[in-house]
Amino acid sequence: MVRVSALARLLVISQAPGTKVHASGLPFDDASGDRLRGWMGIDRDTFYDIAKLAFMPMGFCYPGRLAQGGDAPPRPECAPLWHEALLAQMPRIELILLVGGYAQRRYLDAGNVTETVRGQNRGGRFLALPHPSWRTGGWERRNPWFGAEILPWLKTEVARLTGPG
């Protein structure tokens, strides 16, 4: 779901809401949110503090299911139509977390999520992360560098951007 904030310094750009999130109206209000908050090292209250974090999906509504199972991709017209206007309303954003391949392709012209996450330069405006779905547990076991290299940096930056002052 979209949560725009002129005060937030951290923005999460992700795929599209799933069924539970679509029903609750809160971004990442599911198990993937628990995993993402763990990666970020923050609690639920901080995560949903509109003065600290903003959220902008690639698709603004639940895209439906694929015939072979799983959620359909985000609707392609949403991001080109709305992202620039919404970003203009968030002048304090210092770090944008690109969660999943759809966001990474739009903002980094990236291909493979693993290569994008591993090869990025930390310290820029964007930080690419895999989507924190249940499937990511296996991905994390196959890519231990993520927990050793990326997550400590992410937690430090999130603490800096969401802390007092």
What does this structure look like?
By secondary structure, the protein is an alpha/beta fold. It has helices at residues 19-24, 31-40, 44-47, 78-88, 101-108, 113-119, 136-142, 145-162, and strands spanning 10-14, 53-57, 95-99, 126-129. It is globular, with a radius of gyration of 15 Å. The chain is built from eight helices and four strands. The chain has a four-stranded parallel sheet with strand order 2-1-3-4, with helices on both faces. The chain has a single domain, classed as 3-Layer(aba) Sandwich (Uracil-DNA Glycosylase, subunit E), CATH 3.40.470. The model has no long low-confidence stretch (mean pLDDT 91).
Brief digest:
The protein is an alpha/beta fold and 165 residues long. The protein has helices at 19-24, 31-40, 44-47, 78-88, 101-108, 113-119, 136-142, 145-162, and strands at 10-14, 53-57, 95-99, 126-129.
User: In percent terms, what proportion of residues is strand?
Assistant: 5-15%
Helices and strands, in order, run as: EHHHEHEHHEHH
Major β-sheet strand ordering: 2-1-3-4
Spatial shape: globular
The CATH superfamily turns out to be: Uracil-DNA glycosylase-like domain
Poorly predicted ranges? none
Q: How many beta-strand elements?
A: 4
Helix proportion range: 40-55%
Set down the secondary structure blueprint.
Elements: E1 10-14, H1 19-24, H2 31-40, H3 44-47, E2 53-57, H4 78-88, E3 95-99, H5 101-108, H6 113-119, E4 126-129, H7 136-142, H8 145-162
Parallel strand pairs: 1-2, 1-3, 3-4
